[in-house]
Fold AMP-binding protein.
Amino acid sequence: LPAELAQQTLARLPGAQLYNLYGPTEAAIDVTHWTCRPGGDSGVPIGHPIDNLKTHILGAGLQSVAPRAAGELYLGGIGLARGYHRRPAL
C-alpha cells in the first residue's frame, strides 16, 4: 500500500480505520497486519503477524538476518497450507 494513498484515504475519510493486510497464496488469506495512522510513516510496512502465525526473515542458508537486512520471508503457524495440490515434493 503506497504511503501517499494511505494518507489520502485517511484524509478523505476522517474517523475511518485503514489497515494494510498481507498474505501470500500459501497462507490462509492474511498473515500480517498494519494499522495506518493519519500523518503516519513514509512507508507502509506489511506489519506484524496475526495470532497463531510467525514471520521470519532468513538468508541464503536459512539463517536469521540482522534487523532491516534483506532476506526471504518465511511463515510458520496454523494458517499455512499443508503442501501444494498434486505436488507433494514442495
Observations:
- Residues 3-77 form one domain.
